[in-house]
Write a structure and sequence with these properties.
alpha+beta, flat, six-stranded mixed sheet
């Protein structure tokens, strides 16, 4: 049986298809090419480095196309992108047969942070003009991404001396081993063992030097307790039961097409202080995009902080709808069991079971006894930044339920915020059917992008170091997510038509 025959590599062909003929009309790389080609790099903050000598630089639009294609194909490594420029037909077409090395590719993202940030916002303008975002409902959430910092390169101040002593003992052990090897009569075996031991010794001495530098760091900064040697900006983050050095990545997602409208990276381990910066960024985007409708921002129980709620309640153009952390705790107890037992001995005697009497300015316990203020002025809690009143019961000694209520000799006391009336009304509003319905949509809005980025694309860690560089990388990841999302919604042909339509509309305005 004859097989289908190909063309031999050494066959000379008189006429051949052009590279453009190989790329289909609906191939997404055509959308990448046209979109990047229409960008005004100067307006987006791109600054070409000054070159006194040497060859001319690569066109930044070519490098941007390479990065966009790479990220869309789940390739972030600059070395792998360099290889793709030499062997991938689509990449060769997109890069116009240019083959920049990995240093050039890597430095592009590294040295143009403002430009990369502006590309994300520029694409939001494109999405708004295409009627793809409305900002009527926005889901806000955070997720943890690993940093380029292993646990072995995280040092604690209280254990650095112990680590240094262990290294010294190991060095002495290797030195003794070298001396014992010298007594070996077999010359070949002696040289082999000495070489192996000497390599281990050299590696250990280098590690000792690093530990000494870390020790000096602790000496220079007395308040520093934990030092992340590889990425100093990383912090321990808890994610799915594992604790690793990483970052807390925040996004705000528009409900209409699940497009990311805001992204932000911090090294804080929880979301308790993230409501204000995220809400402010959503308002900034609304202003930039000239969107005037009211926005409902939907947040999970991790953002339920009195201080943050009070900071954002009165902001114009946006309302915050936050899940109640006590309800979330109840659900988690039912699902996973009570891993953190309540400090109060008996069920039904938690602080939330006490009622506040506004007219009498007292708290009423479940047994009907009154708790009175211990001071006329509220006390400032430094940890939470809240002003709290303490209410104390003076009838605990005569109460037969005391053992269920408290173990404190003074009697049962509870703390209530000076904002209790405002918070009570807010929490009551959150229980309405309308707000409950809105909150039920939060998960499907905001978890789509994180699911795509982390599970589908496998981007669970950052490849760059330092908070500023990580923010640049996350900006680009979010831009790529939006780009892919719009491609899926419109299709390549309609995407290209929309690019051309907006380009013509811009020309007419000028």
């Amino acid at each position: 049986m004859d097989y289908i025959q190909g063309i031999s590599p050494d066959q000379i062909v008189l006429f051949s298809d052009s590279l453009d003929d190989i790329i289909e009309a609906d191939n997404p790389i055509r959308a990448i090419d046209i979109y990047v080609s229409m960008l005004d790099l100067g307006a987006l903050g791109f600054k070409l480095p000054e070159l006194k000598t040497g060859r001319s630089p690569y066109d930044p639009k070519i490098l941007l196309k390479i990065y966009i294609y790479g990220f869309l194909e789940k390739i972030r490594s600059s070395r792998k992108l360099e290889k793709e420029c030499k062997r991938n037909t689509e990449m060769i077409w997109l890069a116009q047969s240019l083959k920049p090395d990995h240093w050039t590719i890597n430095n592009f993202l590294k040295t143009h942070k403002v430009f990369i940030k502006n590309i994300f916002y520029n694409f939001l303008i494109f999405c708004k003009n295409a009627n793809l975002i409305t900002l009527e409902k926005v889901g806000i959430d955070g997720s943890k991404f690993r940093a380029q910092n292993s646990k072995n390169n995280v040092h604690k101040k209280k254990k650095i001396e112990e680590l240094e002593n262990k290294i010294m003992l190991k060095i002495e052990e290797y030195v003794q081993e070298l001396e014992s090897n010298d007594s070996n009569e077999d010359e070949e075996l002696r040289l082999e063992r000495n070489k192996e031991t000497q390599n281990k010794l050299e590696s250990l001495k280098k590690y000792k030097k690093k530990v000494e530098n870390v020790k000096d760091k602790f000496a220079q900064e007395p308040k520093l307790e934990t030092y992340f040697a590889t990425d100093e900006d990383a912090r321990f983050q808890s994610d799915q039961g594992k604790i690793n050095p990483g970052y807390n990545s925040q996004i705000a997602v528009d409900d209409k097409n699940k497009l990311i409208v805001v992204n932000h990276v911090v090294n804080k381990s929880n979301d308790l202080e993230m409501m204000t910066p995220m809400v402010d960024k959503v308002l900034d985007v609304k202003k930039d995009l000239k969107i005037t409708n009211h926005t409902h921002s939907l947040l999970d129980a991790g953002y339920d902080s009195e201080k943050e709620i009070m900071n954002n309640l009165s902001k114009e153009g946006i309302s915050i709808i936050v899940a109640d952390k006590h309800e979330a705790e109840k659900r988690n107890k039912k699902r996973y069991g009570n891993k953190n037992p309540d400090k109060v001995p008996g069920k039904g005697y938690q602080a939330r079971d006490f009622k506040y009497d506004k007219d009498k300015d007292v708290c009423i316990c479940p047994e009907g006894k009154e708790l009175h203020k211990t001071h006329t002025k509220p006390h400032l809690e430094k940890r939470t930044g809240r002003f709290m009143y303490e209410f104390l019961c003076h009838e605990c000694d005569s109460c037969d339920k005391r053992d269920k209520c408290t173990k404190n000799k003074r009697g049962r006391s509870i703390k209530i915020s000076s904002n209790r009336v405002i918070l009570y009304e807010y929490k009551h509003r959150m229980q309405s059917k309308e707000n409950k319905k809105l909150l039920s949509k939060r998960k499907e809005i905001v978890e789509h992008p994180f699911g795509t980025i982390k599970s589908n694309w496998g981007f669970r860690s950052f490849s760059r170091k330092g908070l500023e560089n990580v923010q640049t990388e996350f900006n680009f990841i979010c831009f790529i997510y939006n780009f892919r999302r719009v491609l899926n919604i419109l299709g390549t042909q309609n995407f290209i038509k929309e690019i051309k339509r907006q380009k013509e509309a811009k020309k007419k305005q000028v």
